Amino acid sequence: MLTFTLPDGSTETVEPRTLLNAGYAGRNQDEVAHHIAELAELGVPAPTVTPAMYPISPYLAQQTDEVHVQHGRTSGEAEWALVILGDTENDVLLTVACDHTDRELEVHSVAWSKNASPDVLGTNAWRLSDVADRIDEITLKAWVGETPIQTGSLADLLSPKYWLDVLRERGLFERGTILISGTISMHPGVDQFADSWKVEMGDPATGNVLTCEYRTILMPAPIG
């Protein structure tokens, strides 16, 4: 079960039933195509269509401050998340998220790489309807260790409305569905591999900030 605290102090609790990770979800799809070409040079397979959407095991939607990893080449991504509580847009929460990804697996399958670690969600949220009229002004930032690695806004990504329409088309606009947005560009030259990640989503109109942060813990070496 996930529990979110809203700005008025009330809480909403929901059991994740469907977890989806958007991919290649930049609003400028020409830039997305350029990014796909860059990833192809690193061996990451190109998607068959953009934007993409990957189903993830629902138990991987977690509110945690620790992520256990099998090796040192894993990293997070600054994202937002939609949490569906009911069947109308007034029943949708918006929160901050970090999609922790196995970069070694990514060269074999993006979907596999995203099922290897949790999607970490914040413990605070806003009702989407309360911020919908200024959604593009909301900022999104990430730090790897103490180093800034991503800086942007929700205007850089396909909008929550776009994805709500997709969920409706697929019969997934229902309580317990969680959709993670896809991520913004990383700063060039920053090492994405470190033992902690922090993502922050801010609303300039109110000064409210949503945060999720965690450290990675290396699992013991296997035998065999």
TrEMBL record:
InterPro entries: DUF2848, Fumarylacetoacetase_C_sf. It comes from the Bacteria. This is DUF2848 domain-containing protein.
